[in-house]
Amino acid sequence: MSRLRRDPRSERSRHRVEGAARPRFDLAAAPSGLHGRARRDPRAEFRLAQVPGTARLRLDRTQRVAALDLAPAARAPEPQAGPRLVAIPEPAFLVAAVPDAPGGRLTPHDRQLLGAARLLADAGGGAVLVLAGAPADELARAGADRVLALPVTGYDPEARAMALQAVLAGLDIRHVLLPESPEGGDLARRLAALTGEPLFAGAESLTARAVTRPAAGRRTEQRMVPPRLLTLAADAAAAHAGTLHEALEVAFAFPPLPPGAILSADDVPADPSRVPLAEADFVVSAGNGITDFASFHDLVEALHATPGASRVVCDAGLMPRAAQVGASGTVLEARCYFALGIAGAPQHLQGVARCEHVVAVNTDLHAAMIERAGLAVVADAQKVMPALLSLLAEKAADAETHDAGAGESEAEAVDA
Amino acid sequence: MREPMNVAVLLSAGHHPVSGRACPVPVEMQAIGLGNALGAEMTGLHAGPASETIADALGHGLARLVHLKIGEADDPLASLIAALGTEKSALVLAGRVGQGGEDSGLLPYALARALGLPVVPDASALREGPEPSTLLVEQALPRGARRRLMVRLPALVTVHPAAPAPLPFAYAARRRGVVEERAGIASPRGERAIEERAYRPRPKLIAKSAAGASAAERLKAATEAASGGGRVLVDPPPEEAAREILAHLRDIGVLRG
């Protein structure tokens, strides 16, 4: 530990008053040179920390506002460089990834799958071929070089497997990756049975040189050089980020596919009131800002959602304990979380961490839930709920009259 | 009155996930329950070395069990193909992933391929179809959704854990059940260039910025949105807020209609 040595003479000379005939020193005044630390002005700091635009006093001690005020205005904002586009015109080989993409949207597991395919392709100058239909810009961001949609509509996994087999036979594909999800796992096993190739199922770690999976009841680990056909467990590989890829459409002539043994298939949507919270797709949750629980339940039903609640509400006995979201309740896997009157304690946000979309209504602009949300409305949830209910009722009535009109016109057509 | 269907249930040598001791696989016991609900004549099929616990499946509502004796290193596929060829089952039920082997879940698919049967995965309920030799299968999908399928028999159906709970174990039923022991077909597994070692749990992926950071930063990374900040509407009239919220929900595709 060393401190700068004091120089009493120069310190004294800094207090010298200029212009006098004989040397005069004003020791009470601040030194003329800008030496040492500037004196703090707590009142000015307080003023700068005040967040404008709120009725009640709020201080932002992180000094973000103050820093913005003090920042030199002349400094131009740095141009935001978009992600770099990477083109692979002549790939050495192809790595095929077959994401589930339910409804044409990539799931987080699908993105991880494309990240893994990217890793295998980049190790040897290959390109990633995505065998599914999804928006091109979404695929480009996820790291797809080529895109080829399989010509199968409806639920016919055997036909999908045959189409995949045709692609495997027709193109130079070194690896085929599928997600170890109900649909992807099923397709991978069908493909393995069709082609007679060994399947490396449920890979838990993956590099260009080695891939591992648990076997024999998770007591042994199998490890090998990445084989041709493998499925990837969830959260085993990182999604691709940083560069943009071309996602070029590839032309391929599929052979005619024979009809499968499945005579009919109807999708039955889940009954949201019976689905357990951990599996629910869309959760509407009530917090301390909600007092009218009758209209909250009406809203949940009108939105076809699963009801949730914060700890405060469950502790008060206003909602069942099974509905509690958060670290001590249920950790959600939902696609969308709609928080009404919830500020967002860290324990609550942990329960929402895996939700893809968050919509929040809260009176506090600086609540953590507002910061987390994709769409945040700073308003009283008690007033927004009736507005939502009346709008949904209007839409439902419109749809009914429209359906009735369509039915009448059909009946007329039959009569004519 | 139709004749009762012949249903074969594939049973594997399960291990308890915590203790590691031999025990029946729950989803295969659920398959026995589904077959019994159809009013079918059930036969259990197991190919493997001698084991005490295989016969425990009899205590969960199975009347007859065929045990095909093969060696530790043999592939059960050939024995099962031969046995199912003679059994003439209209329906073959199996768990999603059989235990005791590599746990790849490939055996039902390879078996169905060899026997020329269609595979229907993840059944949670079974009913007889409207026409003879058809079957209505309720398939369990993620997030509690279901799919109703009609398939032509014979078929191989794998069972999902969302199927009704199995019958509880009854010792008298276990004593009453018949175990038929036959010699299986010895078919050693082909050599694959796979290295095996003791299992080591791999860490799940966490956000990159949070790796190795302080606890507060890890919590922040776990609770913050992956994709930056969103749109904020400050003090809109309730009607406008409602319109914006519904439009957003429709955009992300969670709102039907």
Give a structural overview.
The complex is a heterodimer of chains A (416) and B (257). Chain A has helices at 8-13, 42-49, 64-70, 108-122, 136-142, 157-170, 182-195, 293-302, 311-315, 346-352, 368-372, 381-415, and strands at 16-17, 24-25, 84-86, 94-97, 127-130, 146-147, 173-179, 200-203, 205-206, 211-215, 220-224, 229-232, 243-245, 248-249, 262-268, 282-286, 306-309, 336-340, 357-362, 375-378. Chain A has 416 residues and is an alpha/beta fold. Among the domains of chain A are: 86-249, Rossmann fold; 277-390, Rossmann fold. In chain A, the strands form five sheets. In chain A, strands 8-12-7-4-5-6-14 form a seven-stranded parallel β-sheet, with helices on both faces. A five-stranded parallel β-sheet of chain A has the order 17-16-18-19-20. In chain A, strands 9-10-11 form a three-stranded antiparallel β-sheet, with no helix packed on it. In chain A, helix 6 (157-170) packs across helix 7 (182-195) and helix 8 (293-302) packs parallel to helix 12 (381-415). Chain A is extended. Chain A starts with 7 loop residues before the first helix and ends with a helix. Chain B has 257 residues and is α/β, with parallel strands linked by helices. The two termini of chain B are 44 Å apart. Chain B is globular and about 75 Å long. Chain B is 24% helix and 26% strand. Chain B has two domains: 6-183, HUPs (Rossmann fold, 3-Layer(aba) Sandwich), CATH 3.40.50.620; 208-251, no CATH class. Classes of the chains: A alpha/beta (416), B alpha/beta (257). Strand 20 of chain A pairs parallel with strand 11 (231-234) of chain B. Chain A: One of its GO terms (molecular function) is flavin adenine dinucleotide binding. Chain A: One of its GO terms (biological process) is fatty acid beta-oxidation using acyl-CoA dehydrogenase. Chain A: InterPro entries: DHS-like_NAD/FAD-binding_dom, ETF_a/b_N, ETF_a/FixB, ETF_asu_C, Rossmann-like_a/b/a_fold.
